[in-house]
Amino acid sequence: MCGGGYSPEIRRKYFISGPQWAAAYRGQALFWAPTREPITFEDVIREFGKIGIGYWSTHDSDVIPTDVLGTDRQAEIVAKIKRTLEEHGVKCSMVTTETFYHAVFAAGPAPEAPEVREYAAFRVRNTVDIGHELGARYAVYWPGSLGYFTQGSIDEIQTLGWYADALNAACERDIEVAKQKGRDTLKHCLEAKPFEPQAEILLPTSDAMLAFISSGRLKHPEMVGLNPEYLHELMWGGAPRAALARALLAGKLWHLDINDGYRLKHDVDIAIGLVNPLDWLNVLMLLRSNGFNGPFNLDFKPLRTTSNHGVFAVSFPNAVDRFITLWEIAAEALEDSVIREATAALKAGSGVSAGTDADAIAEANKELLTLHELIAHRLVQLLLGMHRGRTYF
Ligand code: GCO
Ligand code: MN
Ligand code: MN
Fold first, then answer.
1. Could you tell me if the CB of 301 is within 6 A of ligand 1?
2. 366: which of 36, 95, 239, 250 lies 20 to 30 Å off by Cα?
3. Same domain membership, residue 361 and residue 284
4. Overall pTM surpassing 0.90 (yes/no)
């Protein structure tokens, strides 16, 4: 019954990654009340392998207990992860550092206390090491609690500078390790979220992060790009497609968290296309026509009402298959003769010469502009399969 019912072989052809934390999410509400049993990375990787999710992503502390990070025990766990990935034909695409959950980060990842900042630098450097060990090509940073609850409690400029120091530490470590291992450096991708877990967030949107990347505080701005999340751009009231277009213009769209949800509500992380399939179709048309080739990371949360079995039997296969279906419809829409003709006609203009008469130009364009609405109708036809004769009598 799942989605397009694609085979694992077909699913593996797409650069789709599944996060450890999404599969292992226990269905807790904001006020904590888990509905599912804990599961391990072995469970997640095995099930991803069966479904045909070819890539896996993880936070450092999703798989390595915080108190053994950087120790020999870490090396043992990482070796075990490597074996598990190989066994199930899954690759690690991305690693990310948890700098928002443990109490040490209560005041954020870049607070006043120098020892916390030094510890944060250790954590991101250590994640770079893990990433290279597991063969990842991307590192993601969601700054979480970089912000404040009450005004005046932090100095914004200093905090942003300290946050830049942590990224500088990660990039410098990366340059060192990549050289030692003869690998490319990782792509370091910032992820913005407008609300949660702080009342006021210092880098709330992808645009804010683009400004931060070019602020002059990063030592290696060329190594740092974006991992926008669809829902995070929608949450603040933005148009995700426009936010992604701005990131593409800046050459910084490197990684994408795919999910869905609602404007101006909290981070519900619903599976891709379950709320806004038409908007997603549009987003994928933008990405296809601009040659986006980064990972599509399934950063959604199986619903609280879904069982442990349902996570892998219903949530993930459906999310993957809907992504594939929308991706293929996007290709169809880009080739569609109706949309092509309409777009070409709009671009050709009315044919009158510009001159100085605004009314005359407006009059000449009047009929032509109806094509905007025609394109909208056509896209929905393509989405619902009406162009293939799907009608009801
Ligand atoms: C969230 C974020 C996370 C990040 C993850 C990667 O809303 O909690 O989207 O899921 O994507 O922490 O760094
Ligand atoms: Mn995310
Ligand atoms: Mn989210």
1. no
2. 239
3. no
4. yes
